[in-house]
Amino acid sequence: MSAEQEPGGARGLDALQIAELVECAEQQLLGGARRYTRLQVSEQVGVDPEQTRLLWRSLGFASVADDEVVFTDADVDALRQVVALREAGVIDRDSQVAMGRVLGQTFARLAASQGQLLVDLLVSRPEALVSEDAVLAAIEHLTPLMQQLQDYVWRRQLAAYLTRVGVRASTEVTPAMAPMAVGFADMAGFTTLTRRSTGAELAQVLDVFESLTTEVVGAHNGRIVKTIGDEVLFVADTPADCAQLAVELAERAGRIDSLPALRVGLAAGTVVTRLGDVFGSTVNIASRLTSLSRPGWILVDREMAEALADDPRFVLRSRRPESVRGFGHLRQWRLQAAAADGGTAPRRRRGHARRGR
After folding, report:
1. Alpha-carbon dihedral angle through residues 212, 216, 218, 221, given to the nearest 10 degrees
2. Residues 228 and 309 in one domain
3. Within this chain, do residues 156 and 212 fall inside the same structural domain, yes or no?
4. Cα–Cα distance measured from residue 206 to residue 295, given in angstroms and rounded to the nearest whole number
5. CA distance 183 to 59
6. For residue 271, which phi and psi values (nearest 5 degrees)?
7. Is 5 among the domain residues?
8. What is the pTM of this model?
9. pLDDT tens-digit map of 271-319
């Protein structure tokens, strides 16, 4: 593939044959051209076509007609791997759809993020836009590096999970239902911010928010379950770790002028874990407390307050119970860091830190 170059040698994306480039990039990423229909894939692997359809949909891909040629040899190999996992007893027919859903959602976001970074990188480097072949060469060079990094992170995360399961097993705690501390943090006034900011400005705010939460949660033995726009859900194995990371998160966010003040809600108790997500009344209470919190505040439930009552690092102030959906009159305590003199650490005031979203 080649094309005429401009006098300077480099060209913009609008000068490239995009349709042809995308087709070649797809073949490069998928290891070949589209060759099979869904029924042909099912026949090759020996799987019920309906199971193939359910798995394809669970991965987040659009439905395809039975006679539409959209699948590659890589798709056939992937289905064989699913069958191998099922035959090994790792998954059953029902859990393979659930597993597909988790993989599809996780990697859809990852691929969109990496794809945007890749496009931005190519646009910022004119030498990569000399021709369609140059773009494909850049993709061929970068994708194995990203794949290796993803494999490393996945293995590290899997090892960390097994370590946590091992600790819980030694205390006779069921891995799928264990005591932990749960927290939500969201940016106060974010809806108002979206109305008066450009897309680039909002992207910058969200990038700062995600970078801060990732750093602080990880530093205090916590784990981010998921980020949804202006809100992050995190967990920690102990109330003390969860409280420490919440205090640092709120305090550091308060020093960043471009970031709205955070509202945080924490709760402790038994949590149901499934496919990387968390469920149960403890999670719901943390969410309700976040909605009751004020900008820059951290509210905790009774379990958290009792666990932290004798910890000299924190100050707890009881607040009037409030009626919330599903929990009647929910008791709450405001959590703050203790100052060196035994009081409450001073907090910086910011004019835009108003209650509401």
Report:
1. -160
2. yes
3. no
4. 17
5. 29
6. -125, 135
7. no
8. 0.67
9. 998 877 899 999 999 999 999 999 999 999 999 999 999 999 999 999 9
